[in-house]
Design goal:
The protein has about 650 residues and is an alpha/beta fold. About 65% of the residues lie in helices and about 10% in strands. Helix 5 packs parallel to helix 13. The longest helix is centred in the N-terminal third of the chain and has 54 residues, at about 110-165.
Length: about 650
């Protein structure tokens, strides 16, 4: 059993530890570590990703080859009439008469130029259709792959969130978990696209274009390299600010999601309390914080982009000036023999346009790399938030080799149990000793905040006690499988949760294998059958969201029926009759006593009529069971805590009745 100090450290540290981790500067090593953690999700799709890379390579080849070959063929061959190279003639299926013989001043005939033009148009059309189909198919295929990767991470995150203890969910906002699972998880695919696939493609294209343009003249390549110096400086200065505001933007958007979730969850209370204006003001404040953080993030990314664009524009002007001057003077290209494969032995119109296209491509890819870097900083923060949820270890862990759950439950006991949500605060439960045997109903009674529901939570292993043990047939439940334990415990909560499904589906929510007859029997025990069959479609009646079409008492009876249908040896009812009238309450409790003859039943309640039906009553005060016995036994204790509780309740009811008659 872990110590209070260990529990407290994890409980209190959930939010602060994340804050500390996110506030740390992210190094290149950290980026690679996060990308490495993404690998298992990518590896599951490695065949598809390999094929996608192949498609990307083919499309890249077309992007580079078409301008180099097409511009020279059309501008120098069709427009000027210069003979083409042997490579170009074979590519277009033309005879050797179109190939240059090396004689100065030779030109193609008008007929040859028209034929060359027609071949260029045909090939250009075919290649355009092929490229368009390749792009559309590749984009759809990429989206499909990314959706599968994202789905895998979301499922793992949801599974981890489900297995985290209630201590984490109590200390965290529901909307934050929603934002992480829905929004932050999407960064795994965007990170791959923005920080792996797209930069890789851009760098390869950049290097290829740099080699080609250097073949035209090394001075052009030098201009490109010099341009990278001010760009690198802008990266160095603005990256920390981008990361800082990215952290704030995601945190404030998470807060906004939580606020929206809270508003719609409590919309009835908000309306009945006429608190719309107050709630709206809070929403406006959270929304403004999120918008402000997003603005500051985008503003700094925009500064980076503008600074890079200015540097690229200056480089473009210098390169255009040099290339135009060389074209006018018809200077020879630096590697004329190599570049001559596409006809660029000297600077002419085709060489100028081809080199200009490559220089534009270099600068465009540099700008794209800047965009990837800026957006990537935000994505890394989101990915870190997603993995933070996965890094949390559940406090209640499954044992490696669990014992077999007892075939028949004889008794349930708490032995010297102590528990606190936070070791720095007072204990919620202290030195709890209680035994409940099969065929009995145990009522857990006490004022609000005495630890009644927490006591039942320990039986479900929603928490583990700091000290002591909870046992079933003298077997510590920590030695049992959590799945098997919860499979054998049914619970009906005061805050009943119903779903937008039929009544039958709601009752069978946790036991979908049950037949309609079994559903009707459970509804009969819970005194719900009669009102169900009076509805227009009976058990097939669709309920509104959260069962809004039903009264509070009807919803409570459906919640009890759901627990009964599971047919477990242990049943926990938390305020099961709080919304029932006296007659219905009596019937439900009578049915539960008959149904629970071979089961252990716990009632967490305040209602005296419910308490009196119990075989034993555990009265709790300040986290202790201060009195234990039947109703008659506890009422016989002079100055007893339970007796004071009952008398106070009775006086309160009497005063209410008198005031009502007055």
């Amino acid at each position: 059993m872990r110590s209070n100090k260990t529990i407290a450290r994890q409980a209190v540290g959930y939010v602060t530890s994340e804050q500390e981790k996110l506030d740390e500067e992210i190094s290149i090593r950290e980026v690679f570590r996060l990308l490495k953690r993404c690998w298992p999700y990518y590896a599951a799709q490695w065949k598809h990703l390999l094929f996608l890379f192949s498609l990307t390579g083919i499309s890249g080849a077309f992007v580079f080859a078409l301008p180099l070959i097409g511009l020279d063929l059309f501008n120098n061959g069709v427009l000027v009439g210069e003979p083409i190279t042997s490579f170009q003639s074979r590519l277009l299926f033309l005879d050797p008469s179109y190939v240059s013989t090396g004689v100065e001043g030779e030109l193609l005939t008008d007929s040859q130029r028209r034929t060359l033009r027609n071949h260029c148009f045909v090939w250009g059309g075919l290649l355009s259709v092929f490229s368009l189909a390749l792009y559309a198919g590749g984009f759809w295929y990429m989206t499909w792959i990314y959706a599968r990767i994202n789905q895998a991470l979301r499922v793992v995150m949801m599974e981890r969130a489900e297995h985290l203890s209630l201590r984490y969910h109590s200390d965290s906002r529901t909307g934050d978990a929603m934002y992480r699972i829905y929004q932050d998880s999407a960064t795994i695919t965007n990170v791959f696209l923005v920080l792996v696939l797209s930069p890789t493609r851009a760098v390869l294209w950049l290097l290829f274009a740099l080699v080609v343009i250097t073949g035209f003249d090394p001075l052009l390549g030098l201009v490109c390299l010099l341009t990278s110096i001010p760009i690198a400086y802008l990266f160095y200065v603005l990256t920390p600010a981008i990361r800082r505001w990215s952290r704030r933007a995601r945190r404030t958007n998470s807060d906004l999601t939580s606020r929206i979730q809270e508003i719609f969850t409590g919309i009835k209370i908000i309306k009945s309390s006429r608190a719309e204006r107050q709630v709206l003001d809070r929403f406006i404040s959270d929304s403004k914080n999120a918008l402000d953080a997003a603005f500051h993030l985008r503003f700094r990314i925009a500064i980076l982009q503008v600074g890079v664009t200015v540097a690229l524009m200056m480089a473009t002007l210098v390169m255009q000036y040099l290339m135009a001057n060389w074209t006018i003077t018809e200077q020879a290209t630096y590697l004329g023999g190599t570049v001559a494969i596409v006809g660029f032995a000297i600077w002419n119109l085709g060489a100028y346009q081809a080199a200009s296209a490559q220089s534009t491509g270099i600068l465009r890819n540099l700008r794209d790399l800047v965009d990837y870097w800026g957006v990537g900083q935000d994505l890394i923060i989101g990915l870190k938030r997603a993995f933070f949820l996965l890094d949390l270890e559940p406090e209640v862990k499954e044992i490696a080799e669990p014992m077999v759950f007892p075939a028949k439950v004889e008794k349930i006991a708490w032995h010297g149990v102590n528990f606190s949500y936070n070791a720095s605060k007072q204990r919620i439960l202290e030195d709890i000793n209680l035994v409940s045997e099969v065929g009995t109903i145990t009522a857990i009674v006490g004022s609000t905040g005495t630890g009644k529901s927490t006591l039942m939570s320990l039986l479900l292993r929603l928490y583990d006690p700091d000290q002591g043990a909870v046992t079933i047939n003298d077997t510590d439940i920590s030695q049992l499988s959590i799945t098997e334990l919860r499979k054998n415990v049914a619970i009906a909560l005061q805050k009943n949760i119903l779903f937008t499904r039929t009544i039958a589906e709601n009752i069978a929510y946790a036991a979908p294998e049950k037949t309609l007859e079994e559903i009707k029997l459970a509804a009969g025990v819970a005194c719900a059958h009669d009102f169900i069959i009076e509805m227009e479609r009976g058990y097939d009646t669709e309920l509104g969201e959260r069962g809004s079409k039903l009264s509070a008492g009807q919803r409570q009876r459906l919640s009890i029926a759901r627990a009964i249908l599971r047919d477990t040896p242990i049943l926990i009812l938390d305020e099961p009759t709080a919304s029932l009238d006296a007659v219905t309450e009596h019937k439900v409790l009578s049915n539960l006593r008959d149904w629970g003859q071979n089961r252990v039943v716990f009632l967490v309640t305040h209602r005296l009529s419910t308490i009196r039906t119990a075989d034993q009553i555990a009265f709790m005060e300040n986290g202790n069971i201060c009195e234990l016995g039947t109703h008659e036994e506890l009422m016989s204790l002079k100055n007893g805590h339970y007796r004071d509780f009952v008398e106070t309740e009775v006086d309160g009811i009497s005063n209410s009745v008198e005031q009502h008659h007055e």
